[in-house]
Amino acid sequence: MPTIRDEYLHAALKIINDPNILVNVVSLRVKQLRRGNRALVESLEKLSAEDTALREIAEGKISYELATPEELARRYPPQARSAITAFAASTRSSH
Questions:
Q1: Residues in CB range of 47: below 8 A, 6 or more apart
Q2: In whole angstroms, what separates CA 23 from the centre of its chain?
Q3: From 21's CA, which of 10, 36, 55, 94 has a CA 20 to 30 Å away?
C-alpha cells in the first residue's frame, strides 16, 4: 500500500469529514486514475493515485453524493434493502 501524505489526508477530511465515505470516494477515484482518467490537479512532482485523489477532494475538484433510500432500494435485492435503507437513513441524519 502506498504511503499517503498526511497533509493531503487532513485537507480532504475537512471536505469529507466521514472517514468511511472518504475511503470510498478515494478508492473509486484511484480506480479511475489507474484506468487512465486524467488527474484534475497539477503537480510538479509525481504523486501517487491516492495522493492525487485526496488533493482533488481537498481542492474541490471532485465531490460525492449519497444515494437516497429509494435509489438504494431499486439497486439491491429485497433481502438487502431494509438494512441498506436503514444505514442510508442513519448516515444522512448524521450530516
A1: 39, 55
A2: 6
A3: 36
**Band of the pLDDT at 22, cuts 50, 70, 90?**
very high
Q: Which residues of 64-87 are buried (b: 16+ CB within 10 A; e: fewer)?
A: eeeeeeeebbeeeeeeeeeeebee
8 Å CB contact between 35 and 78: no
Residue type, 68: T
**How far is it, in rounded angstroms, from Cα 39 to Cα 52?**
7
Q: Report residue 41's pLDDT band, with 50, 70 and 90 as the boundaries.
A: very high
